[in-house]
C-alpha cells in the first residue's frame, strides 16, 4: 500500500509532453559471446544513442515509463515504456501483489503487453514490471532458438539453456527444488553495460497466476531457472549486483578477461 501511495505521489508532478511519446530506442548490445541475461545478445553493432545521458535525463526516462502507465487507457497514441535504470527507488523496493480481480483489467493487461514488447524489443529473455516503472509483482520471460543461436554452443550447453515459450507470471512465488547451484555471468537491462557472476539454484519451482488469473506452476532448471530467480528478485527490490560475487563485476568490454585470483570458477557446483 505504501509503495502505491509513494508511486502515485511520484507521478503527480510529471508533465506529459510530446517528448514523452517518443518511442523507445534500441538498447545497445554487443557481439561479445557472454552469458548475458535480460538481453539476448543480438549480434549487432552498438548504436551511440546513449551518449551524454545525465542522471536527470535518465530519471525523466523512468518518469516517462510511469507516465505511460498512468495515462493507460485514456491515451490514444502509443507510449512505449523505457527500461528504468539502477538507482531509481522502484528497482530497490518490493513490488506489491496484483489482486486477482485486477488481473483482467485493461490496465494490467496493458502493463503485461508493454512488458512483453519492451522485453522483445531489447531483445531480452526476461523482464519484471518494476523495470518499466511499475511496482507490481509481474514477470515475463521467453527464450528462443534464435537468441540461443547467438551464443557459442559450449556456453549454452554449460548453462543448460533451452528455448521456451512466452511465460507471463503474476504474483510469482519461487522455491528451490534442490540445493544444487551454478555460477555464471549475468547482466540486466537496468544495469546496462556491466556483468557479474551470480550463484543461482539449478532447479526451481514457481507458482503464480497467468494473465487470465488462472493458477500456473513452472518447473524450471538450468538457464530458465536462473531467469526466474533474477526476475523474481526484481520484485523484492533486489538487483543481481546485490547478490553477485563482488570481484567479478566488470564492464561488458572486459567480460572475456580472466576472473581474479580467489574468485570461484564458473559452472555447476
Ligand atoms: Zn534484471
From TrEMBL:
Regions crossing the membrane: none
Keyword field: Chloroplast, Hydrolase, Metal-binding, Plastid, Protein biosynthesis, Transit peptide
Native organism taxonomy: Eukaryota, Viridiplantae, Streptophyta, Embryophyta, Tracheophyta
Compartments where located: Plastid, Chloroplast
Originating organism: Rhododendron simsii
Gene Ontology BP, a term: translation
Function: Removes the formyl group from the N-terminal Met of newly synthesized proteins.
Primary location group: plastid
InterPro entries: Peptide_deformylase, Peptide_deformylase_sf
EC id: 3.5.1.88
CC annotations in GO: chloroplast; mitochondrion
A Pfam cross-reference name: Pep_deformylase
Similarity remark: Belongs to the polypeptide deformylase family.
Known catalytic reactions: N-terminal N-formyl-L-methionyl-[peptide] + H2O = N-terminal L-methionyl-[peptide] + formate
Protein known as: Peptide deformylase
GO MF annotation terms: metal ion binding; peptide deformylase activity
Top EC class for this record: hydrolase
Amino acid at each position: 500500500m505504501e509503495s502505491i501511495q509513494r508511486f502515485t505521489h511520484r507521478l503527480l508532478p510529471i508533465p506529459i509532453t510530446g517528448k514523452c511519446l517518443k518511442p523507445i530506442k534500441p538498447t545497445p548490445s554487443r557481439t561479445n559471446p557472454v552469458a548475458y541475461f535480460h538481453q539476448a545478445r543480438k549480434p549487432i553493432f552498438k548504436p551511440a544513442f546513449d551518449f551524454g545521458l545525465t542522471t536527470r535525463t535518465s530519471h525523466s526516462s523512468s518518469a516517462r515509463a510511469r507516465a505511460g502507465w498512468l495515462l493507460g487507457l485514456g491515451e490514444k497514441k502509443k507510449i512505449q515504456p523505457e527500461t528504468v535504470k539502477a538507482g531509481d527507488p522502484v528497482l530497490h523496493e518490493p513490488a506489491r501483489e496484483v489482486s486477482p480481480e485486477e488481473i483482467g483489467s485493461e490496465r494490467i493487461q496493458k502493463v503485461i503487453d508493454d512488458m512483453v514488447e519492451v522485453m522483445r524489443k531489447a531483445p531480452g529473455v526476461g523482464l519484471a514490471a518494476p523495470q518499466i516503472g511499475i511496482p507490481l509483482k509481474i514477470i515475463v520471460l521467453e527464450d528462443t532458438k534464435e537468441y540461443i543461436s547467438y551464443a557459442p554452443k559450449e556456453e549454452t550447453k554449460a548453462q543448460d539453456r533451452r528455448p521456451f515459450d512466452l511465460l507471463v507470471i503474476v504474483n510469482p512465488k519461487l522455491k528451490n527444488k534442490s540445493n544444487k547451484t551454478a555460477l555464471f555471468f549475468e547482466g540486466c537491462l537496468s544495469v546496462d553495460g556491466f556483468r557479474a557472476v551470480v550463484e543461482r539454484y539449478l532447479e526451481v519451482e514457481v507458482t503464480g497466476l497467468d494473465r487470465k488469473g488462472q493458477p500456473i506452476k513452472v518447473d524450471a532448471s538450468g538457464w530458465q531457472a536462473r531467469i526466474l530467480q533474477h526476475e523474481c528478485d526484481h520484485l523484492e527490490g533486489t538487483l543481481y549486483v546485490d547478490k553477485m560475487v563482488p570481484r567479478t563485476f566488470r564492464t561488458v568490454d572486459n567480460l572475456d578477461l580472466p576472473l581474479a585470483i580467489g574468485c570461484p570458477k564458473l559452472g555447476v557446483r
